[in-house]
Write a structure and sequence with these properties.
single chain, 263 residues, alpha+beta, Fumarylacetoacetate hydrolase, domain 2, 8-stranded mixed beta sheet, 13 strands
């Protein structure tokens, strides 16, 4: 375990990287003994700075690295989690500025969950998640990394709030009990051209399983998933690199979609 002052310093470094939109060298290149627990404490330090210095508030959580295509792309083979704040959320159709806002963004098509009940592990099951969910929502998560050139190991992405940038929610919200979540099919388009697709089963076999994993993992830190929060359940397809001028859209069969443009 790293000393608390070292954790604070690393958290402050990553917070400044977020504010200034600059990259830092991978933590795992600099600190041979950094653990995943250290990394989560660093991410909590960043979150506290965002709340105290920038007036942001927690509105949800995200699960990362749940699907094999994303794990293979990044060479990281373990799920992780991060926090969502009000400053990260965009509505469908939004224009999202890259300069001064994002460094090296990539799009993930996801299914978001809006909760109506708290969930606190351990022992949370898929049935518990379904019972606690008000709606599911087509969603883009725009991941971004303050770690130089996306050269991340699991400790790097965990420390960097699970490489979260911003996210885009559809106006369409539906009752998950009306759908077979593992077999939901998502198609993703970039600049009006088809570029990827995936099923709900890409996320740990079932998005409900991913959210249950999150509730139980956060339970070890005594952190609940709260009623009203949005939970991003993980990417259904490979990451899609973005530059200014790109237009992204997705559609989940039988439900609807969302879109955004990067400027």
């Amino acid at each position: 375990m790293l000393e608390q002052q070292h954790i604070n310093n690393l958290g402050d470094e990553l917070y400044q990287a977020l504010v200034l939109q600059k990259e830092v060298a991978p933590l795992t290149d600099r600190i041979s003994n950094i653990t995943i627990e250290d990394a989560y404490l660093i991410s909590k330090r960043i979150l506290s700075r965002r709340i105290e210095c920038d007036g942001e508030s927690i509105v949800g959580k995200k699960i990362g690295l749940t699907s094999l295509p994303v794990q293979e792309m990044l060479g990281v083979f373990h799920p992780d989690f991060g926090f969502l704040t009000n400053a990260m959320e965009y509505p469908s159709g939004a224009e999202i500025q890259i300069a001064g806002n994002l460094i090296a963004p990539k799009a993930e098509g996801e299914i978001a969950f809006r909760l109506k009940k708290d969930l606190l592990g351990p022992g949370v099951t898929e049935a518990d998640v379904l019972d606690a969910t008000a709606t599911i929502i087509p969603c883009f998560e725009i991941v971004d990394s303050r770690i130089q050139d996306w050269r991340i190991k699991i400790q790097d992405t965990v420390a960097d709030n699970a490489s979260c940038g911003v996210y885009v929610l559809s106006e369409t919200e539906v009752d998950p009990r009306d759908f077979d979540l593992p077999n939901l099919r998502m198609r993703i388009y970039k600049n009006d051209e088809f570029c990827a697709e995936g099923l709900g089963s890409a996320v740990q076999g079932n998005p409900l399983t991913a959210v249950a994993w999150l509730a139980n993992t956060l339970g070890d830190f005594d952190i609940p998933l709260k009623a009203g929060e949005v939970i991003l359940s993980g990417s259904l397809a490979s990451l899609i690199p973005l530059v200014a001028g790109d237009e992204m859209s997705l559609e989940i069969e039988g439900i609807g979609g969302c879109s955004c443009t990067f400027i």
